[in-house]
Amino acid sequence: MRITTQSFDTLKDLDIYTIGLFEGEDLSEKHQLVDAACNGQLSYALKEDSFKAKLNKKMLLYTSGSTVFKRLLVIGLGKRDEYTTDKCRQVAATAVKELISLKKENVASEYLGGPALGKDFVNVLVEGFGMGAYTFNHYKSKDEENPEFVLEHIILSCKHDIQSSIKKGLTTAKAVNTARDLGNHPGNVATPTYLANAASEIAKAPNFKLTIFNREDFEKMGFGGIKGVSDGSDEPPKFIIMHYTGDEKDGKTLGLVGKGLTFDSGGISIKPPASMDEMKFDMLGGAAVLGIMQAVATMQPKLNIVAIVPSTENLLGAKAYKPGDILKAYNGKTIEVLNTDAEGRLILADALSYLTENFKVDGLVDFATLTGAVVVGLGHRYSAVISNNQDFADEIKSVSDFTHDKVWQLPLDEDFTEDIKSKIADVKNTGNGRAAGAITAGAFLQEFVKKGTPWCHIDIAGSGWNKSGKSYNPDGPTGVGVRLILELIDRWKKE
């Protein structure tokens, strides 16, 4: 999607113009100009129609005699004092979905209430346009008589230079949609090799270095976790490392890890068949990291990032690891495997320990669709945060409040580390039964983060995909985590 700017007084012959109205307010001076451009049809419709400008409600007017626009699309913004950046994303997505359904190419929009938010609203509005326009039709047969309509261009009515904000919004939306695409592809397409190829394309940008370890490297490197999980699959596993150097001399360094389990059958501890098709989504942590790094490649921020995506399938081949096996992770700690369906934490163990043993980072965030327990606890609207550093957790929560990429912190103290101690190895890969499952998973991961490294584990098992979301979140993968980290990067980077 392209977004350009043009002042309202120069617009003409549009198919559709879009405005937003706050609930219970008279037409502003700006909207009086819009009303005049359609010969008072807006004010007449508001007087006669039941449209009350409730949030995300729509009204479409067919104007007559207007030389500016043939139709006027009105979106409800709700109450002004309740309007937020998240609602701005929602109304932008509502608007763009309606524009797409009308299949008109020559369209324009105002800011849809954005100025009520103060500064930095343009990129949020643009995010809503880009995220709301998302569809995934890769595998549907083309209908030659009714081809899919793609909205390629929106004009924003504006007199100011807002290109940097537009670029930021479009880059963020594209990164979110990339993560969604990666998650939507089936497991026979989005294999570990597919993810590695995606990383390779991203790493062609300046200041990137890409390293990929393969199955034959795992034993030599000491990657016992990913080796154990991948042994049951013939699909080649990958350990993907992307190193971006935007300010090597004295910039901050951020560490990112994303679980890239491209299909999870549960292994020997096989899952029940109901909804097992959704286990193609078990790589959404890795998808988020790749989406983030795609945006980094475009924006080239002044800081440093080390991103790792350990990627494999978890299947039931003849060499599959078994309950009772003992594996050794990169940092030398041994793991008693009690459940082969608790595999994500095993591949993350290698990634977290490799990153923190070989790189000094100012903060480390891992994303993983890790536990069913987090879905029970938080549903699909929040991601869980578990951390060893309260200052870093508070920073993540602050960013979350701003982006509405919502997180909720769960506790982590020494009592939970007792739950993952093994009698015959250093740790075991499950806690004591079902109690506090999301937290004991975090306690396990903490064992593989080098002491002194500020770290936040973010469990996206619930928030990673949904079946009924907001207007900018379609059914399926949400791209959760991408906006969160891009905002963190924006706060960390040197100007």
Describe this structure in words.
The protein has 495 residues and is α/β, with parallel strands linked by helices. The chain has 2 domains: 2-159, Leucine Aminopeptidase, subunit E, domain 1 (3-Layer(aba) Sandwich), CATH 3.40.220; 175-492, Zn peptidases (Aminopeptidase), CATH 3.40.630.10. 35% of the residues lie in helices and 21% in strands. Strand 5 (107-109), helix 4 (122-132) and strand 6 (153-157) form a beta-alpha-beta unit. Helix 8 runs antiparallel to helix 10 (344-358). The protein is elongated and about 80 Å long.
CATH topology grouping of the largest domain: Aminopeptidase
Query: Which structural class should the secondary elements be placed in?
Result: alpha/beta
The rounded distance between the terminal residues' Cα atoms is 28 Å
Q: Output mean pLDDT.
A: 95
> Globular, elongated, flat, extended or rod-shaped: what is the shape?
elongated
Strand content: 15-25%
How helical, in percent, are the residues? 25-40%
Low-confidence stretches: none
CATH superfamily of the largest domain: Zn peptidases
CATH class placement of the largest domain: Alpha Beta
State the domain count. Answer: 2
Number of distinct beta strands: 20
Let me know the largest β-sheet: 9 strands, mixed
Name the assembly state: single chain
Radius of gyration: 24 Å
How does CATH name the architecture of the largest domain?
A: 3-Layer(aba) Sandwich
Summed up, the helix count is 15
